Amino acid sequence: MEVSKNQLHSFRNLLDNSRSIVLVPHKNTDGDAIGSVLGWRKVLTNKGYKVTGIVPDDVPSNLLWMEGADTIIVYGKNKSEGDSELNSADLLIFLDFNTIERCGEIATVARKLRIPKVMIDHHPYPDPELAELQFSQTSVSSTCELSCHIIEALGWKELLDLKAAECFYSGIITDTGSLSYNSSDPETYRIVGQLVEKGIDKEKIHKELFQSNSVNRMKLLGHVLCYNLRVMPDSESAYIFISHEELERFSYQPGDTEGFVNFPLAIKGIKVSVLFTEREKDKFVKISFRSRNNIPVNKYSERFFSGGGHLNAAGGEWHGTLEEALKRFKETFPGFLAQL
């Protein structure tokens, strides 16, 4: 992938005039978001910058092993420290999102900052007002992959050491289902190959990401697959729902439902899978979509659930009850498919 020379020149100028840099990912962080933050943190620290990662909410437990995870400021728990770092920064870099609302409460402060802002993201339809410099490329697998391309184009490959490679590799793997989707470009595998050459332990990373589950997470997964899985054969789709009461019953922790949305796709004949998670009782439902082939779940999510994302992987939300969200999906999705 070729990175614009003009963008690289602008980025170098911003970096040359900065000493303190703050990295911010989206709320409800995942492997690509945290991998991007900690990968860039290591590279920029190696370059001599003061770098701080600030996240809107808790880091999922299966990502806490990455170097630097213990230095991240959770804004929802420590606003004063977060505000202090934001207000003293020379440069703000947004990672893995492209509209200001996606960084939660941090958005209020970020809007007021009169410092340069950079966006590095792989989702479609970026807000042109988010940052004056935008590295936006929807063809890449992940923001971690895009970050590696930028670092390579900057001539900083030697700064991308083993620990940074672990972070970026984790982001690519988690955002592609271990290279099972959003990963058809040979460039993705070239980047992965370079990260492996840094000496990463793929077996160890896989274990940390996917085989370090709590007992409660496994019980929750078993419960929802047994009792909360519904199949809509006429639409070649299936969905899972989790109530707020069920989250509390199984002592939910951030990251516990990561990957749940992929399980219905293992059913023969199913091309679309949806996960509805009631985060606030009768108030807010988080929705995840996955699809096969050319079914554009991003367009469906954008139209009916205030969301968006990629062709085969998208997210949305519903401000209301879980029952209302399920009803809206069952009433609108068959018609949406029929129009394709």
Automatic annotation (TrEMBL):
Q: Where is the DHHA1 domain?
A: 250-332
Supply one GO molecular-function term.
Answer: nucleic acid binding
Residue span, DDH domain: 21-172
What Pfam families has UniProt attached to this entry?
DHH, DHHA1
The record, for InterPro entries, names: DDH_dom, DHH_sf, DHHA1_dom, Oligoribo/pAp-PDE_c-di-AMP_PDE
PANTHER family hit by this protein: BIFUNCTIONAL OLIGORIBONUCLEASE AND PAP PHOSPHATASE NRNA (PTHR47618)
The protein, known as: Phosphoesterase RecJ domain-containing protein
